[in-house]
Amino acid sequence: xxxxxxxxxxxxxxxxxxxxDGSTQRWADFRVGARPASPAPADGPLPSAxxxxxxxxxxxxxxxxxxxADLVLATAGPGRGLVDVPLPGGPAGFGTPxxxxxxxxxxxxxxxxxxxxxxLLIRDVPxxxxxxxxxxxxxRRGVTVLGAPLTAAxxxxxxxxxxxxxxxxxxxxxxxxxxxDRLMAERWSARVAAGGGMRWQRxxxxxxxxxxxxxxxxxxxxxxxxxxxxxxxxxHVVLAADQAAAVALAGELLGLDLPPAVPRPGSGVLATxxxxxxxxxxxxxxxxxxxxxLADQVWPGLAGVESDLELAxxxxxxxxxxxxxxxxxxxxxxxxxxxxxxxxxxxPVRRTSTRSNVDPEDVLEFALGVLGRSWVRDLARSxxxxxxxxxxxxxxx
Length: 397
Hints:
By secondary structure, this protein is mainly alpha-helical.
């Protein structure tokens, strides 16, 4: 090892030690500042720029931060991405060129964060639990709820809490709908929650290639099928501009006084995109059943409820969305079933403030928060705040 390489490596390790102690200083400032009195001892491979930058951005008030930093610095980024990005200032070499850590693409830092999150999540996969039991009231007619997946899940929860069973031989059928862009967002979130890995833009590209909406949100088709099975008089399409209004309107239809609906934790835009990146890693490490239990029982508490849940059609997809909305409205107008709400609600609303794609920088900020909460949860479950973390898994891909 040359003298220049040795000096550079010692400086990188010194910055790592500085970050571990709670510093937020950037690499460009650290390497031109005062040199450490004694270089940090060489221990293990040299951390990459992405690992170090993720440590720099983490919340320094987290308990046992040094142990968390050690875990990040020992966790390689899973999946595809830049390979061991070196820090600027060292001798010229081969491989990935040096990049200033704070100039790295957000996707690279999210990739490292996913590796750490998987390490933490797989330590405590929930055991399989029996399905929840509910106090069914047999004198009440069952209700079948379909349509917008997330809104339907909220309504089903409210019905079960009141002893109203899902389905039955002669159910009242409720098909929940709303603006087409919101239906697509709910479909995307539900697919990812079930283990999917499709990006928001890819969902639209697939639908446009087939020139039809994804299964589950084809409102007219669903209502027509239910009408054939149970009779049009038992089918009700409920259209509303947002989830809360849809649940409230469905409650009125069913003669129930439902509380204001709130979004399900873990179903927001950023939570969905982060879970999308985690899904293949979780399946690789704990299998599909383990992933499902983590997504159902652990993920909602870590991800929480986001304030902004809206996504607009991606660029170039608005015209198709308008055309498809008109088809849905035409189908609803000719059906024999009841339609509650204005069919024109299905038309996507052009909102300049709504994002049309998921910003990796936003996902990174969200991932930092989830990582912090996951670390606190791991400490609470382990022997204590001073217990060193276990080694990262070797099966992250």
